[in-house]
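If you are new to this repository, start here. Below is one unmodified record pulled from the training split, so you can see the exact layout before writing a loader.
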Amino acid sequence: MNSSSNNSSSSHAGRPINGDDRMMPVDGEVLCEECDERAAGGAGDEEEEGSRPTMMSNPRAPTRAEVDEHQATHLPYRAWCPHCVAGGGRDRARFLKSAADVKANGPLIVADYGFISDRAETRVESESRGLTPIMVMRDRGSGSTLSLAVPHKGAEPVWVPQRCARWIDSLGYQKVTLRTDQEAAIRAWARAVARYREADTVPETSPVSDSQSNGAAEQAVGEVKRMVKILAHSLSASIGATIEPQHAVLAWLVEYAGVLITRHRVREDGRTGYEAVTGKKASMPICGFGEKVLYLPAKAVPHRKFRYGIFVGIIGGSNEICIATEEGVIKVRTVKRLPDDKRWDRDLVLNIKGTPWAPVDGATTAPIPIAVHVPIFEGNLPPAPDHDPEVQNRAMRILRRDLEEHGYSDGCRGCH
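And here is the target side for that same chain:
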């Protein structure tokens, strides 16, 4: 090779191969003519080294089983999932207190309000549009999260602070500190929660305009909102329809977001919030939010049989499954999935009736019933009581000691 060739080869590792360079395969590798000559020991050139580049991560194609499993929780974040990407990217678990901090300073529960909006806007703008507020609570020790869609802010309706108080009790704590910001509505709510708890609850407020003091609550609200957006995007894509912010199904989605974060988001110590509280992993089988399923009504429902409904969540304390129908939302124990091509029903999802605060027929009681209604007909009515029954002769039990005491009867096959 001439001097010009030597110059070109010495800088070959740092320049692209143009269209004039000839490529040829050697032992499974592709080399240009100059590199081929050097590999053969031509012209006595010295070998030169190249630094291996650091490649950007390449999302691998998931298997069908991985897609189906991820579809149920969307946790953890996956770059190959379009719904995770559309929901706002990866979340990082921060602001959690260590076991030593909890033991030294006592349990700390943080809480804040938020809104699920389809646009970038302030809280005041969301309230002026009549959007449903969400209440988010987080235990800074375990990371357990409760998220509720509520009719409005404040201490009313009473089932909101009552349910929040029961959730704190379910964590196994006695005296706790409940930290909020200085908004009047949430302070009234915190005082109501303290009244409904038998153990001591100390309301605490963060300084004005100090986001670091209540940063854990703000992060929890952000995680719930992102999870809601991910699940809503996935559901919309599955049924081929847009879900409006005021739709009833989003109220159930907000609650389910907190359940998923608690049961399936892994903390830095390798455990979920559910494991930290209960000491065991969440093993209850689930399916994707909004899936059409077959459910079996509770045993108290007469003539029960499998029916179609929409899966909208889990009741954390009892592990009962919430099923939405066109008449309302009920809780059941037994659910069966449908084949892939029958799991999504646009009309059934969009016609869901009932919210967490009014599951059936506009009722304002929070508990979810086991049935929308129990039909009364002649076949399931109990018999009328008989106020003058006839005397019925019943068989008498005879023991061996009775025979030994009173003697045996002649000709009785049982005695002899």
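Two things worth knowing about this chain: Confidence is low (pLDDT under 50) at residues 1-28, 91-95, 372-382. Residues 257 and 317 are 15 Å apart (CA to CA).
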